[in-house]
Amino acid sequence: MGGGYDLELFTKTPDYDLLCSICHGVMRCPVMISCGHIFCRNCIMQWLKRRCTCPCCRTKVRGKPYVLMHKLKRKINRLDVKCPNEQHGCPVHFALVHCQEHAEYCAFGAVPCSNEGCPAEVLRKDMYDHSHNCRYWRQNCHMGCETLLDSETRQTHNCYQELKEDYARQLHKLQQKAQRMETICSQISRQLQMMNEPAQPAADTGETI
Ligand SMILES: [Zn+2]
Ligand SMILES: [Zn+2]
Ligand SMILES: [Zn+2]
Ligand SMILES: [Zn+2]
Ligand SMILES: [Zn+2]
């Protein structure tokens, strides 16, 4: 986590004494050092890694590096802020402390498409449309035919039509089979008939089997 909160985030210009003199933002997790000056915790920690004096008054920093300013932190947490997705159209305002919580379901937040392989980031509110038109969309037909559909075939896929065609093919095969059986049966019965019948004059038995 970086320095303070961007001033742009706040609906009203924050008081000057809430600003960190290192990052010039509103103090995030404010801490006081031995001289009494207050900064964002991260900002002063980074500063003290390289120097051992206060960036405001140049006094040498002594003892415990800092004291957490709980009351000030609560005051800052209550400040009214705009949604960070305001530029995408989110009109909502809330206390700073609710920023994280809002970001998790903000309809104007950008989230990655859940279709495997798709590199797109889409606003939450547009995700439904996107994922249904996304060219990475793939799903088994949920009507029960189990065909694996993609963004192109799902437009033209017609379960009923496909089942009908499938049945028609099967029916055709069965009909062919039945016809063959019928031919064989009639051949056999003719043979049987000929075996039982007394011999006919040669002229009547011209056909061969
Ligand atoms: Zn700061
Ligand atoms: Zn100081
Ligand atoms: Zn929002
Ligand atoms: Zn996608
Ligand atoms: Zn189907």
UniProtKB/TrEMBL annotation:
GO terms for biological process: protein ubiquitination. Residues 102-155 form the TRAF-type domain. Keywords: Coiled coil, Metal-binding, Zinc, Zinc-finger. GO terms for molecular function: ubiquitin-protein transferase activity; zinc ion binding. Pfam families: zf-RING_UBOX (PF13445), zf-TRAF (PF02176). It comes from the Eukaryota. This is RING finger protein 151. The keyword Metal-binding applies. Signal peptide: none annotated. InterPro entries: Ubox_domain, Znf-RING_euk, Znf_RING, Znf_RING/FYVE/PHD, Znf_RING_CS, Znf_TRAF. Residues 20-58 form the RING-type domain. A zinc finger (TRAF-type) spans 102-155. Residues 157-191 form a coiled coil.
